[in-house]
Amino acid sequence: MPISVFDLFTVGIGPSSSHTVGPMRAAASFVELVGKRIEEVRALEVDVYGSLAATGKGHGTFDAILLGLEGCQPDQVLPDEVDERSARMTETGIVRFGDRVEIPFTVADMRQRPLTVLERHTNALELRARSATGEELAHEIYYSVGGGFVVTQSDEEQAVLGTAAGESAREPATPYDFRSGDDLLRIGREEGLAIWEIMLANELGAGRTEVEVREGLLHIAGVMEQCAANSLDRSGHLPGGLKVRRRAHDWYLRLKEEDPSRDPRYYQEWVNLIALAVNEENASGGRVVTAPTNGAAGIIPAVLHYALHYVDWVVDGGDEARDEAIVRFMLTAGAIGVLYKEGASISGAEVGCQGEVGSASSMAAGGLAQVLGGTVEQVENAAEIAMEHNLGLTCDPIAGLVQVPCIERNAIGAGKSINAAKMAMWGDGEHFVSLDEVIATMKATGADMSDKYKETAMGGLAVNVVEC
Fold first, then answer.
1. Cα–Cα distance between 104 and 96 in angstroms, integer?
2. Backbone angle region of 399, left / alpha / beta, with phi > 0 → left and psi within -120 to 50 → alpha
3. d(Cα 358, Cα 387) in Å, to the nearest integer?
4. Which of 147, 209, 218, 238 has fewest C-beta within 10 Å?
5. CA count, 13 A, side-chain hemisphere, 392
6. Average of pLDDT values for 141-168?
7. pLDDT confidence of residue 159
């Protein structure tokens, strides 16, 4: 298992995992590449290619690169620090490379090449550092391949930077090496294990203790919950020029009044609220969890919210049951996410929004089916249903902002997840289309999809809706 649940769920900032988190991580990695020669750096060269350049302004890509060049990491930098550093760089035109060497460099100095797509991936970033004499001190090409994952041109094995897997130099001892849904079904049947138990065993095989895994997952769930809570306190409009009105705050006030005792009849309204809240926070550059991407960050928190508030054994069991439900949900969702990351893609720039919202919906559906007591067959079925009905979903953000249709799309995706899990639980796990088949279909559909529907803002709603 080369990918950990802690690779798929990472803390970062909005609005995009591939266009904000990834570029920041890449630029920070470049600082480390320069290493001991950092004091010699007098000039920087930055080329931004493909989708990163096409929608970089709306996604905060260029500011994220500048922050990374100052050594900021997306899982550590806070929104207030982002604002402070960005304001200072805009005012002075100076980047503190590695937070040490002051170099005149602004967004205007970046070469933006939206029509140039490098062979490995459309999200590409090329960085050079030069001395006072023009000597090239360091050079690297980075690819932001979705979900905050970054790979380098020079690394033949495409090691992931800044993630739980990428930071490990060892090959984990994986008790259960699964690469497909069929593998998960086979292991579950042969070993008598649920999917969450298979994923937990692999996390333990990677050197983590069970306490570390559980505490880590509870921390991630806590960040998701805090993200939604932060958003519920905010009103007004989202940044970026479209003047999209925040809705979560007003909806929350109305729901508290109309449904003070959590009547199950209102479950969909609460699920919609959490999805909107998380994605409004993401769109404003707030602190979020990639799940597995920022563009789809609201789905898993919203469906997890449903599991924690509307599944009887969780509601009746107190804090202990709540924590157990989170662990089972997240590990199951993570196992399914591994299949998408390895077998297809979670990058909207590569396969369209089916790779983001579709993958998140599938992961959430499987996680909920697990909490509902599903068998391995029912969990696999739930994940398959959710993706099957997201196939062909395009990525066409208006003005390149992760706002329209992205925010509402998360709420719709969360609803699909819950319905998929419930449908699977009414069956016995036997179904016509397998999860592996639908993942392969998603990958092929993405390959056939026109580039204008892959996070370039050159097609769909992005060109048919007048920006006001």
1. 9
2. left
3. 5
4. 209
5. 2
6. 72
7. 46
